[in-house]
Amino acid sequence: MKKIIHTKNAPAPIGPYNQAVLVDNTLYTSGQIAINPETNELVIDSIELETKQVMENLNAVLNAANMTFEDVVKTSIFISDMNNFAKINDVYGSYFNNETAPSRETVEVANLPKFVHVEISMIAIK
């Protein structure tokens, strides 16, 4: 049985999807971009601040499902410019323990919603 996860501490969906879906003990998050949930504005002052907002949005969704980054087993990172990879990776990596970090892929794409530079989704298991 699936349970819809929603929190006001992450941006509301802007289409026909939910922030996350919990099935048994597995959480599937939708991709998060750098929308500040308090202002509904994009945080795109720098790639580091943009990535931090994305990770904070994901943290809020994980928390709403009573999970943490330690429960994350897989991430997908979509970026608009592979030249930003190192900066994105530094911020992303600060949220995980290197010894227990999840598997992931990072893919450069032609475009992302609202023309942001990074979008990240996760799968977590409790």
From TrEMBL:
GO terms for cellular component: cytosol. InterPro entries: RidA, RutC-like_sf, YjgF/YER057c/UK114. SUPFAM superfamilies: YjgF-like. GO terms for molecular function: deaminase activity. It holds the Pfam family Ribonuc_L-PSP. Belongs to the RutC family. This is 2-iminobutanoate/2-iminopropanoate deaminase.
